[in-house]
């Protein structure tokens, strides 16, 4: 049900200090101020990692986006929620970070790839709101987002996290310029995630998934890197027109003005887990089985 936007959450965010209250600020943004935008940005952040050859190669080798894309998307959403909702420094958050670190420990992933992936969950959210959201994020909101994900990175033992929002943004830009390139693996994994994303959309819009995603990526170079073609201009203009209408509506109405997005059917809907999930069993089945059996890895799924 549409409710008039009162601006109370915007005012709360403006009154909070990102140096002290960044977790509360991120919670307000994710549950009331920019909830759906944050969710969509997180999905696109995953897709953008494929532009790095090492990441695309590993993801192709595991086959998780190509063989069980909806499970991979569900696992990522659930794991991040289990960490970020209570906070990376909370007991529940630390427990889930430990679980995530154990899963990652089965692979030889260089620190710079962890760092780049971490950066995307910050800067894709900022980009999305600036281009498609009902308003752009403020300096303090960006700082809060940076600090929250910095905490996550530190909990994951990621090294050399840049010391400020601005420094991290510069690092991300330079990293993309140095490493982002097309590979066949990137194209294959992209096709896989598009299938998973289609399953999240209403049936009537699923045939347009690639057109929709390519338009929302809004980056011609990245489309080439991922092996995607830019849609015809008339399709792009139609989608962008709908997004402008959505932004206008968002300035005046808020679906989560009186309720939390954390309780909504959207965030709680998991295709692979229709009856709910066991939080410490999230992740690739074989790897989770190895964790619990305390056996060395013999194969990946």
UniProtKB/TrEMBL annotation:
What are the residue boundaries of the ER-bound oxygenase mpaB/mpaB'/Rubber oxygenase catalytic domain, all occurrences included?
53-244
List, alphabetically, the Pfam families matched.
MPAB_Lcp_cat
Q: Which InterPro entries match?
A: MPAB, MPAB/Lcp_cat_dom
Protein's recorded name: Oxygenase MpaB family protein
């Amino acid at each position: 049900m549409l409710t008039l936007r009162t601006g109370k959450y915007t005012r709360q965010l403006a009154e909070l200090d990102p140096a002290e209250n960044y977790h509360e600020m991120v919670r307000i943004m994710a549950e009331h101020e920019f909830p759906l935008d944050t969710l969509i940005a997180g999905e696109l952040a995953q897709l953008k990692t494929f532009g790095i050859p090492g990441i695309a190669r590993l993801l192709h080798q595991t086959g998780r986006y190509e063989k069980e894309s909806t499970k991979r998307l569900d696992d990522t959403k659930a794991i991040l929620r289990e960490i970020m909702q209570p906070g990376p420094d909370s007991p529940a958050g630390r427990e889930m970070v430990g679980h995530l670190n154990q899963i990652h420990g089965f692979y030889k992933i260089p620190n710079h790839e962890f760092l780049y992936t971490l950066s995307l969950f910050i800067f894709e959210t900022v980009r999305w709101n600036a281009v498609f959201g009902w308003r752009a994020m403020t300096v303090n909101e960006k700082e809060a987002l940076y600090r929250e994900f910095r905490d996550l990175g530190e909990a994951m033992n990621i090294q050399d996290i840049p010391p400020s929002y601005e420094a991290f943004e510069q690092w991300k830009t330079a990293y993309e310029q140095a490493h982002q390139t097309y590979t066949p693996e990137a194209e294959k994994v992209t096709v896989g995630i598009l299938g998973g994303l289609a399953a999240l959309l209403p049936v009537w819009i699923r045939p347009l998934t690639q057109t929709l995603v390519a338009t929302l990526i809004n980056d011609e170079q990245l489309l080439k890197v991922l092996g995607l073609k830019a849609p015809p201009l008339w399709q792009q203009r139609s989608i962008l027109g709908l997004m402008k209408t959505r932004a206008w509506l968002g300035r005046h109405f808020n679906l989560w003005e009186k309720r939390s997005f954390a309780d909504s059917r959207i965030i709680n809907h998991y295709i692979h887990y229709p009856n709910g999930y066991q939080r410490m069993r999230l992740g690739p089945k074989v790897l989770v089985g190895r964790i619990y059996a305390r056996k060395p890895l013999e194969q990946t799924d």
